[in-house]
Specification:
The chain is of the alpha/beta class. The protein is built from seven helices and eight strands.
Length: about 200
């Protein structure tokens, strides 16, 4: 008795190449960022976490090696990690090329340190600046919690002093504003000294 041969398995579907008229957003984004870099412009948009701060730092260092002409850092970051923002602020202050920071939307929390570190600071009319410190739960042993609290206070002091130096405000006033979460309009930020001009 001859058994029927089982049907041959259907070939696995092969990936289709995108049609030439379909947009390639990845390549387009890279092309836009490359064009901006050639114009000595860098974007810092979104939460300024260590990954974004490291990327921005690398771009700034690359541009500073090419020339000492001003670099424009477009900033729109409602939040950020305190240590990452302070590291980026340190980079901005030590570059041989001056960094100009126009800000849009909301800039808040530790991201304000990046603004304060710039040689030239400008903001759009609808800008909102939130002077605040990051909040978050800590866990672990009592020793670990104490170390984290000490580190937070040290970084907070560095941010306070940076904002105070940039604005001419008394350190005690800046400290109170950061802890209270003071919100500034563009006009308020100009009066406070965080912005030097509209832009």
């Amino acid at each position: 008795m001859v058994l029927p041969r089982p049907p041959s398995p259907e070939p696995a579907p092969q990936p289709q190449s995108p049609a030439s008229d379909e947009p390639d957003f990845g390549n387009r984004d890279r092309a836009v960022l490359g064009a901006l870099l050639r114009q000595r412009q860098v974007l810092a948009v979104g939460r300024l976490n260590p990954a974004l701060a490291s990327s921005v730092t690398a771009q700034l260092l690359l541009l500073a090696q090419d020339a000492e002409d001003p670099i424009t850092l477009h900033l729109s970051a409602a939040e950020g990690d305190l240590d990452a923002c302070l590291a980026l602020a340190d980079t901005i202050q030590t570059l041989p090329a001056p960094v100009h920071v126009p800000v849009r939307g909301i800039v808040g929390g530790p991201s304000v340190a990046v603004l304060a570190a710039a040689a030239d600071r400008a903001g759009s009319p609808n800008l909102t600046v939130v002077l605040s410190l990051p909040t978050g739960a800590v866990d672990g042993t009592a020793t670990r919690i104490a170390v984290q609290a000490e580190s937070f206070e040290r970084y907070s002091t560095l941010m306070r002093d940076l904002v105070a130096s940039a604005t001419g405000q008394a350190a005690a006033n800046v400290d109170a504003d950061l802890r209270a979460g003071r919100v500034l309009s563009a006009e308020d930020a100009l009066a406070y000294g965080l912005l030097q001009r509209p832009g």
